Amino acid sequence: MTRQKTLTQITANLPGATLIAKDAGETVVTSVAFDSRKVAAGTLFIAVPGAKFDGHTFVRDVVAKGAAAVVIEAGREAELADLTVPCVVVPDTRKAMAQIAVAFYDNPTAKLHLAGVTGTNGKTTTALMMESIARAAGDKTAYVGTLGFGIDGKIVEGDRTTPEAIDLQAFFARCVDEGVTAVAIEVASHALALGRTDGCLFDVAVFTNLTQDHLDYHGTMEAYRDAKGLLFTEYAKSARASGKDWYAVLNADDPVTLDYRDDIYNKVVVDPNPVIIYKAKPRTNLSPIVSAHADVFPNDIELFVDHINYTAKTPVGEVAIELGFGGTFNVDNSLAAIGYGIARGLSPEVIAEGLRTCPPVPGRFQPVKAGQEFAVLVDYAHTPDGLDNVLKSARPLTKGRLISVFGCGGDRDKTKRPKMGRIAKDLSDIAIATSDNPRTENPEAILDDVLAGMDGDGGAEVRRESDRRKAIALAVSLAQAGDTIVIAGKGHETYQIIGTETFPFDDVQVAKEEIEKCSAR
């Protein structure tokens, strides 16, 4: 669909915006971009300062390519005074970018049922479960998240959990054009802190959990918590102001829920109550900090490697739940998704059908079968809590030994490395520390940090192998009938980043190849 708007239409509600140039407001814009490589004739270019590049240094280049106008930050006017195209001056181009994208694409989320899920772990699976429930309810659906983005299950790989604002609003506009009615999106803390999702009008906001991650960016757990908390305050207020009902689905097993619940009641709305509470842990362990009861909780849980059965208790009735994948933590994820269904007013039967038909999520407690007599599970667990969860989920399903293969990413939070090492040592019988995506760090230096947490007596036999393929091969060579190998950290990823280069690497495929090699000996 061809779109065009004038600068006046795009900037009419842009706080602090000043137009420079005669008749600038009538300039016609046919696309918006912050990446200079995507500029063509008619583009409104937004100069965003970034960690590696400053968009202001590309302004003259994009004008030469035919940009219709540019957006720059206040204080940069003098260095760009010779521009021959209209210029929009704003206090913060990154914040303005989301608002510009919303205006250019006609505020698409106002026309969609938008559900966002945030949390350290479980976002991908929960979002896909929510999408499946919406599909079972008769919606045409879309998903945005770690796996990419797509409509009706046709997912195209993306490069970040939550896309930049322009890409995000463009996708939402495409959803509207193609008749999508319900979207489930993973909302990363970075996206909230950087304003990528500004202007998105959510109908439901879901919280999974908050444990250590991204401290290299946020600095403290408090800042990390507050970034995610925006989804339950500022975004909630915007949604309700737009006329949407807005509901929150919160996890009673995480103490941060108290903060978010109180923020909702104090800053957003109390009556009618917009909060739905779910809980996976036994009701006898229910913390009094949240409430006297949970709205959604499980009974009679049966756990298997590749499926889960339980009975869900909900405010609208009891229903049998069948999941086509394993992992104790997926009980939690499915309860969050049930909360989403309740918020939408769906029947327990429709919710159960959506969960039953939700396909297994790549790289999430994914079994690898190549004729071997031991189990192999690939999981995206890349945080201390994630690794703890996957190993604790695998242990009850293991008759023999539990062998873990795990690593920690380079150029990321270093403080979680010894913690993950300790968890692997405490919960495994054999723990093999290896590389994840070392990026520009020395892989051996990363392993030094990991193994610092694996000192001392007791726990697993510890092995060190920086080559990830060799580490997986070692695990396969050690495994015997009845053992379980958990390969953690990369999950669905089909690449490994070493230095500044990206190489093909798929844990599932590598595991199959090493099993076949071992069987052929």
- What's the gyration radius in Å? 24 Å
- Which CATH class of the largest domain? Alpha Beta
Number of strands: 26
Q: Quickly count the helices.
A: 17
Instruction: Assign the structural class, choosing from mainly alpha, mainly beta, alpha/beta, alpha+beta, or little secondary structure.
Output: alpha/beta
Low-pLDDT segments, ≥5 res: none
Total domain modules: 3
The share of residues in helices is 25-40%
Could you tell me the strand content as a percent range? 15-25%
Mean of the pLDDT scores?
Answer: 94
CATH superfamily of the largest domain: Mur-like, catalytic domain
Please give the order of strands in the largest beta sheet: 11-10-9-12-8-13-14-15
Question: What's the CATH topology label of the largest domain?
Answer: UDP-N-acetylmuramoyl-L-alanine:D-glutamate ligase
Largest sheet: 8 strands, mixed
- The CATH architecture category of the largest domain equals 3-Layer(aba) Sandwich
Approximate shape: globular
